[in-house]
Amino acid sequence: NVEPRSVPVFPWHSLVPFLAPTQSD
Amino acid sequence: PPPPSAPSLPPYFTKGSIIQLADGELKRVEDLKTEDFIQSAEISNELKIDSSTVERIDSSHTPNFAIIQFAVGEHRSQVSVEVLVEYPFFVFGQGWSSCCPERTSQLLELPCTKLSVGDVCISLTLKNLR
Each residue of B74-99: pLDDT tens digit? Predict the structure, then answer.
């Protein structure tokens, strides 16, 4: 018997780049 | 296979990767729509979608990399990122786009169009950044 491989699930936000501008306070 | 030292993209951009939206729904990466990102960000307590307009695309000194300059958010803050030419960005109303869509399709099998100056990409910021 071959155990079913678990399929990785990725969160949606990992696909989107963080482009946070530098805060100028 | 590429040598271990070769930079490569994270696995979730490969066609067929399973992505979980904020409401728990599962979708393949190639099936994601603009609304999926917008609705997921609306549900999120921490993340906010920003529009990031491509202002410049330059080749990098590093082989296979490009430098992309974005104008981010309503203040159009200038942000530059250095990424692999096959790195896909999600363009509002259009879908996945990269500097070298042929390479993206070849390496990831992800359907992709050419990223161009003027394209508006989806990006994230933190809601409570101030």
Answer: 999 999 999 999 999 999 999 999 99
